[in-house]
Specification:
The complex is a heterodimer of chains A (284) and B (404). With 284 residues, chain A is of the alpha+beta class. Helices cover 58% and strands 8% of the residues of chain A. Classes of the chains: A alpha+beta (284), B alpha+beta (404). The structure holds zinc ion (ZN) (2 copies).
Chain lengths: 284, 404
């Protein structure tokens, strides 16, 4: 259903995370010269988001760079520990996605909404008066995303509600997806384990500079929301502990992988499964 | 504890101690918090949990509370402090209470007294006292047949919205008479139990029709070639669209005179065959009625078809709500489940009375009322021997004191 070009447009999708995982990167790759375009694009995403509140889609056919740069942006941003910058970045990326989503076919919108976001979304072909509806969206999915929208047309009493489903037009569906996308990016940014990989440090510092340039100096410094080791799956904890003890262990790359996975929004179960097969660590 | 409370508690105790007594806890009982409001000093015992119906009944028999509540929420640790309970979702609950209804009979049976200046009035208490701007009142209310009938109608309108619009399967719905002035509707739906307070507020607004703009429900006008055409929803369309049309039909059926239209329009609507509402686009078929008139009618239709639910009960995701099968300390009546197909026939004044025998009480003041098939009162400063259920009602309502 989704092409690699789609993943470049929507790098927050579950399929994009899967694609990144299959590439199997380690920290050494980040250091290599061929990774520089990814880091540059990651930085430009951040710079544009922080300065303009938008991210533009480049006219590039380097889809791999486009896809990979997104989790790297996220990682860098998480390492700055600046919550307000995370929100701004998420909103900017979501806005970029909306501009693209509203042009997609109903089939693709439905695929994205039901796949990555687990919406219950049905295709309909319905006209009521002058209004044409393309979708029927389950009430809880509608409410989760519409309550933050202030225009009267999003208020539930102004919708057509039919047996648990809210009718939406294509553009409205894309707009609601924008909210969901922003939420997903904010939440994923919050899941960062352990210590910053040293090689990203210059980019992190650069981003900190951008943040204070565009968002000013924060009143209080916000600590990154790092999960306490006890709350992590033991396998992830194990990797991080090894990393703590010896900086040059080959597990270094594994750590980067774990960071990546958590950062791109893979859930803990998925990671546990992955690490269990690699190290055969049990879950308790 | 005062003698009235003592008498009430003794009667409650006898009721709960009957060997055949059974109490059925809610679904997922072990994950609910229970609360008991005691007669003594109106003390609230909270954060209790029970695994079985027997344990629950045991606690009720020990405490003999005036009111028994359970949480609409399910918790990982229902006995922990609020912060540590671990919220796992809450039933969607609606409360319809005569307190929130504007019934015409209220001035005849309710009254209030300002706690600030002693000012008194009839009907529901105002938001603030007209003479001293205080907002605290002593209120005396009565359960009245008309008020409860109105509450039942509101419940029926609510059920229509909950089933047709929210898509709740009737098997996931339970309706309860509260034992006092209203009805509760509990929705047990996995899909809706995770809604947060803001999302539940939208549900409330939908049921109340609050913030509804008729234009956004399709009532609008277009102009082309100098001709203005009104367009709007049709009978049978889903949600508020169809409901607006049936509401207008109901309003017209009840009498065009009450609609506060101009005399020419009133005449035009009288001559108009309202059955047109069922068939064709009708928005341009009443002489002299343009968009403005239809908008006003549509808003009245929304008022008519909305259900006057309590906002706070539905939006509060940590709410404690009355447990069915327990006695209501405000009345001595039982909170009982009402099967939805029987709602129309349900008589709260018959089906929730439990106390048999007779009791002697001294009644200060009470209007005439009915319990079961017996009509009683009015009473004024007199000692009377009454059916126990009636005596208990007067005691609980603080209209009477025990007499020997
Ligand atoms: Zn006053
Ligand atoms: Zn009344």
């Amino acid at each position: 259903m989704l092409t690699r070009a789609d993943l470049a447009k929507y790098p927050f999708l579950a399929e994009a995370s899967e694609y990144v995982r299959e590439l199997g990167f380690s920290i050494d790759d980040i250091a290599s010269p061929e990774f520089t375009p990814v880091l540059d694009r990651a930085t430009s995403r951040l710079e544009e988001a922080l300065s303009k509140g938008r991210v533009s889609s480049p006219a590039t056919d380097d889809e791999r760079t486009e896809i990979l740069s997104f989790p790297v942006s996220n990682l860098i941003l998480s390492l700055t520990g600046e919550e307000r910058a995370k929100r701004r970045f998420a909103l900017a990326e979501a806005k970029r996605a909306y501009e693209l989503l509203r042009q997609e076919t109903p089939e693709k919108l439905q695929h994205i909404a039901t796949g990555t976001f687990h919406w219950t979304l049905r295709r309909v072909d319905l006209q009521l008066g002058q209004r044409v509806y393309d979708f029927a969206l389950a009430l809880p999915d509608y409410l989760r995303n519409a309550t933050s929208l202030r225009e009267p047309k999003w208020k539930l009493p102004n919708r057509v509600l039919d047996h648990g489903f809210v009718y939406t037009a294509r553009d409205e569906t894309a707009r609601l997806l924008e909210e969901e996308v922003a939420g997903r990016i904010v939440n994923r940014s919050a899941r960062l384990p352990g210590r910053p990989p040293k090689l990203l440090q210059p980019r992190v510092e650069q981003t900190r500079g951008l943040i204070s340039k565009w968002l000013g100096t924060p009143q209080t410094f916000e600590l990154p929301k790092v999960p306490v080791p006890e709350a992590m799956p033991p396998c992830v904890r194990h990797v991080i502990e090894q990393l703590d003890e010896a900086k040059n262990v080959p597990h270094m790359g594994r750590f980067a992988l774990a960071a990546f996975l958590l950062n791109i929004g893979a859930d803990q179960e998925e990671i546990v499964r992955l690490f269990t097969t690699k190290w055969n660590t049990s879950e308790d | 504890m005062d003698p009235t409370s003592q008498t009430i508690q003794q009667q409650f105790q006898r009721y709960y101690l009957e060997p055949a007594r059974r109490i059925t806890g809610p679904q997922s009982m072990a994950n609910r918090e229970f609360g008991f409001l005691l007669f003594k000093e109106k003390f609230m015992v909270r954060h209790r949990s029970f695994r079985t119906n027997e344990q629950l009944l045991g606690a009720i028999r020990d405490l003999v509370p005036a009111h028994v509540y359970f949480s609409t929420a399910r918790y990982k640790e229902p006995t922990a402090t609020m912060e540590e309970k671990g919220w796992e979702g809450a039933d969607l609950v609606f409360d319809i209470d005569a307190d929130h209804l504007d019934t015409e009979c209220k001035p005849t049976h309710d009254n209030w007294k300002c706690k600030g200046c002693g000012n008194v009035g009839r009907g529901s208490a105002p938001k603030i006292c007209p003479s001293c701007k205080n907002d605290r009142f002593e209120e005396q209310t009565w359960l009245c047949e008309k008020c409860l009938r109105q509450a039942k109608e509101e419940t029926e309108k609510l059920l229509d919205i909950v089933i047709s619009d929210f898509g709740v399967d009737p098997s996931n719905l339970r309706i309860f008479f509260s034992g006092h002035r209203g009805y509760h509707v509990h929705v047990n739906s996995k899909d809706l139990s995770g809604l947060d307070e803001e999302e539940r507020k939208e549900i409330v607004d939908y049921v109340l029709g609050l913030g509804l703009e008729t234009k956004l429900q399709g009532l609008n006008q277009t102009s082309s070639g100098g001709v203005t055409t009104v367009e709007g929803p049709m009978m049978g369309e889903p949600g508020w669209r169809g409901r607006i049309v049936t509401g207008i039909y109901d309003l017209l059926s009840e009498g065009v005179e009450n609609l506060q239209l101009g005399s020419a329009q009133t005449q035009a609507f009288k001559e108009w065959n309202r059955e047109a509402l069922f068939t064709k686009p009708f928005w341009n078929s009443v002489r002299g009625a343009g968009l403005g008139t239809w908008q006003a009618l549509a808003l009245k239709a929304v008022q008519k078809k909305s259900s006057r639910i309590d906002t706070v009960v539905t939006t509060d995701i940590h709410r404690l709500i009355r447990l069915p099968g327990t006695l209501n300390g405000h009345t001595g009546l039982l909170a009982v489940e009402v099967q939805s197909e029987r709602l129309d026939d349900f008589d709260p004044f018959t089906e929730s009375t439990v106390f048999a025998g007779s009791m002697k009480v001294h009644v200060k003041e009470a209007p005439s009322f009915r319990l079961g098939t017996v009509h009683l009162g009015p009473f004024h400063d007199e000692s009377v021997t009454l059916p126990a259920a009636a005596a208990m009602l007067l005691l609980c309502k603080r209209r009477a004191e025990p007499a020997t």
